[in-house]
Design goal:
By secondary structure, the chain is of the alpha/beta class. It contains 29 helices and 18 strands. The protein folds into six domains: 4-164, Bacterial DNA polymerase III alpha subunit, thumb domain (Arc Repressor Mutant, subunit A); 188-239 and 360-370, no CATH class; 241-348, no CATH class; 371-514 and 536-552, Orthogonal Bundle (DNA polymerase, domain 1), CATH 1.10.150; 565-663, Nucleic acid-binding proteins (OB fold (Dihydrolipoamide Acetyltransferase, E2P)), CATH 2.40.50; 675-740, no CATH class. Helix 8 (165-179) packs parallel to helix 18 and helix 15 crosses helix 17 (331-347).
């Protein structure tokens, strides 16, 4: 049966399953069961636990396993061949040998059943006549008791209904644009747009479908795609196997004269891919035109080669060689061509699939290039529950010059939204401890009763269910009441008393309405205590940002590293968000802030540190073992900015870092190099000058400031007086970019 994959907005996958069930009948449609098996690492840990050994023994043995390949964990048999550490433990430690022998017996056993994330089976006849089925008690879902390979062997049609987050992002972006009166047809976007290609050629592909990895960014910069076919080819080539052909593809694109074809027919078949076999359709065409196969026969041969069916390959080789001779190829050419297609048939990609994915790649890239605020708002909403991805995209917004504003009870919706087309407003539902029902109640109160004038007006207008002390505290720490003109610390100090008093009065009033004695006309109101005054003191910057990060999972209104971007980028060779692309044991240099430090002790009583290291795009756990800690304990302190040379430990799902060297970044005493601001002469009005004075006055230091003022015919540089000298650290650059635009600094 054909293999059919359908991608949907991830919110609508359930709707599509219901549609298929209603169309073909509830007894003809089912989801497919999966059986998860015990993998090697889990078998080792389970064995150590059941045998009564310390957790550390099982954990150490599991960590001695070689890293997974493309997410697939190695078997114990493979691990013993690859890991000298694991072999030594088995051969020299009796307890380890007992654990590993037990694990070998557990490995591969079925652990539990689940439901396939995408697969749906649709049958002509009632499923009960074809396959055993079951009904899940939780939601009534009908599920086969055979897994997908068994279902396929019965000749039933299996389709994959996939929920794709990027389609959700596209739909949300269109909703944001529609709210501004912009109607866009994604199916009619031009595929030769210069702005979109320029963005991709620069490797600026955060949030672009299939193009986000560091390797793909590098490839985009090397290839410099300038036609849609390049995007299609990249989707097919950037996978294990065909990646080896990428340099050949790039060379052929840059200089077509260097492309060498084994036969003139090959030139015709690979004309669009610069002499490289990329797609399954090209293999099929080659077998037809060069060896005389029919389309059906060619596809069967391609599958046989791809699945390495030796008997069929041996049978087909003489026929292929004979067909090539009939087309005028020499025996050597025919043999070379047969050897050439062996690997390609194994990893070649379906062109229709690649083109479909390229269409989504192009749509996401186009929206990012032309409607960046709306697109990034939708993108942030799609990862609002992902603590690793959200900081990465917030960093992208900063680099794009898009301001991300904190949540606001008067402005925010549930999700991230465009604010005046120039900034993105944080969604209330992304605040920790604030659920969807609370958010809906806040928005409903704002719509029905008007904007909130102050904190106490907020307490009066919202439903009593919102007045939960934990919810209000979270909103205060996140900055959701900042626009009401009151300091966060002041509100924090009075919110419990205020909530108690307003809640008590609301409950008393509610009780009075339904009391047998209510409305007797005695004219007496409910007596309540007055609301407390709000103090004017604010937390210091570090405390305010710490609370903000606690509630939002990241720094939003400011960041301790803002202003140091160029210094950190120069010191590091890897961003913390890209560690997942580094293999186990790779040595990298990263730079960031030590956001959290935990002191621990080895068995010998030596001190070591486990820290959360963060940069502007993400974070990772970094371990400073005793030798490194002893040498550098003076700089390994809370909130220190450090440059760390470290080894990547990718043996678990989330990569960690093991520090090898530590040093502070080169933050030489400011004063030598001037800070240069670029301004257009026509933009130098009183308002701009006032804002510049305010920013410079907030960052007094020793660095001189120069203004580069560009007029219609000439450029003039003005050196400001010593009273405007600044300290370029601690967020100066970020404030200048936020106020005057991303190009306001000469770097």
């Amino acid at each position: 049966m054909p293999d059919i994959d359908l991608d949907f907005d991830e919110r609508r996958r359930g709707d599509m399953i219901r549609y298929a069930t209603e169309k073909y009948g509830a007894d003809h449609v089912a989801q497919i069961v999966t059986f998860s098996t015990i993998k090697a690492k889990q078998a080792i840990r389970d064995s150590a636990r059941v045998l009564g050994f310390p957790y550390k023994l099982g954990d150490d043995l599991a960590k001695a396993m070689p890293p997974p390949v493309l997410g697939k964990e190695r078997s114990l048999a493979e691990a013993f061949k690859l890991s000298a550490e694991l072999r030594a433990a088995r051969d020299n430690e009796p307890e380890a040998r007992q654990v590993l022998d037990t694990a070998a017996g557990l490995e591969g056993l079925r652990r539990q059943w689940g439901v396939h994330a995408a697969a749906v089976v649709i049958s002509r006849d009632p499923l009960v006549e074809q396959v055993p089925i079951m009904k899940r008690e939780a939601d009534g879902a009908i599920i086969t008791q055979y897994e997908m390979n068994g279902v396929a062997k019965l000749g039933l049609l299996k389709m994959d209904f996939l929920g794709l987050r990027n389609l959700t992002v596209l739909d949300d972006t269109l909703v944001h644009l529609r709210a501004k009166g912009i109607e866009l047809d994604l199916g009619a976007l031009p595929t030769d747009d210069p702005a979109t290609f320029k963005m991709l050629q620069a490797g600026d592909s955060d949030g672009v479908f299939q193009m986000e990895s560091e390797g793909m960014r590098r490839l985009l910069r090397q290839l410099r795609p300038d036609r849609f076919e390049d995007i299609v080819a990249l989707n097919a080539l950037y996978r294990p196997g065909p990646m080896e052909e990428i340099p050949k593809y790039i060379a052929g694109k840059r200089d077509p004269s260097k492309v060498v074809h084994l036969h003139p027919l090959m030139a015709e078949i690979t004309a669009d891919t610069h002499g490289v076999l990329v797609y399954q359709e090209q293999i099929i065409t080659l077998l037809q035109k060069v060896a005389g196969y029919t389309a059906g026969e060619a596809d069967l041969v391609r599958k046989a080669i791809g699945k390495k069916i030796e008997s069929l390959m041996r049978r087909e080789e003489p026929r292929f060689l004979a067909g090539c001779r009939d087309k005028g190829l020499s025996d050597d050419q025919a043999q070379t061509l047969w050897r050439l297609i062996q690997p390609f048939a194994g990893y070649s990609f379906n062109r229709a699939h690649a083109a479909g994915y390229a269409q989504i790649t192009w749509q996401t890239a186009y929206l990012k290039a032309h409607h960046p605020v709306e697109y990034m708002a939708a993108l942030l909403t799609s990862v609002k529950d992902d603590k690793d991805a959200r900081p990465k995209y917030l960093g992208s917004c900063r680099r794009m010059g898009i301001t991300v504003l904190p949540p606001d009870v008067n402005e925010s919706d549930s999700d991230f939204t465009s604010a005046d087309g120039k900034a993105i407003r944080y969604g209330l539902s992304a605040v920790r401890n604030v659920g969807e029902q609370v958010v809906e109640a806040i928005i409903a109160a704002r719509r029905e009763k008007g904007r909130f004038i102050d904190f106490f007006d907020f307490c009066e207008k919202v439903d009593i269910g919102v007045l939960n002390k934990r919810v209000i505290e979270s909103l205060i720490k996140a900055g959701a009441f900042d626009s009401l003109g009151l300091p966060r610390r002041g509100l924090f100090e009075v919110h419990e008393v205020a909530v108690d008093r307003v809640t008590a009065r609301k409950r008393a009033e509610a009780a009075g309405q339904f009391s047998l004695f209510g409305g007797l006309g005695d004219g007496e109101d409910v007596v309540t205590e007055p609301l407390p005054p709000v103090g004017r003191e604010e937390w210091d910057k570090s405390q305010r940002l710490a609370f903000e990060k606690e509630m939002l999972g990241q720094y939003v209104s400011d960041h301790p590293l803002l202003g140091l971007e160029h210094v950190l980028q120069a010191a590091a060779d890897t961003s913390l968000s890209s560690l997942t692309e580094r293999s186990d044991g790779t040595v990298v240099t990263v730079a960031g802030i030590l956001a959290k430090l935990t002191k621990k002790f080895t068995k010998r009583g030596e001190v070591y540190i486990v820290a959360d290291l963060e940069d502007l795009d993400g974070g990772a756990e970094c371990i400073f073992f005793p030798q490194v800690y002893t040498q550098h304990q003076g700089i390994l302190v809370q909130d220190a900015v450090v440059v760390v040379k470290a080894r990547v430990d990718a043996r678990d799902e989330t990569p960690k870092l093991v520090a090898l060297e530590v040093k502070p970044p080169n933050l030489s005493e400011p004063g030598s190099a001037p800070v240069v601001l670029k301004l257009e002469a026509r933009a130098c009005n009183d308002g701009v000058v006032t804002r510049i004075k305010h920013i410079l006055g907030s960052h007094r230091g020793k660095s001189p400031v120069h203004l580069q003022i560009r007029g219609a015919r000439s450029t003039m540089v003005v050196r400001l007086g010593d009273e405007f000298r600044v300290d370029p650290r601690n967020g100066l650059y970020a404030e200048i970019k936020a106020e005057l635009g991303p190009d306001a600094l000469l770097t």
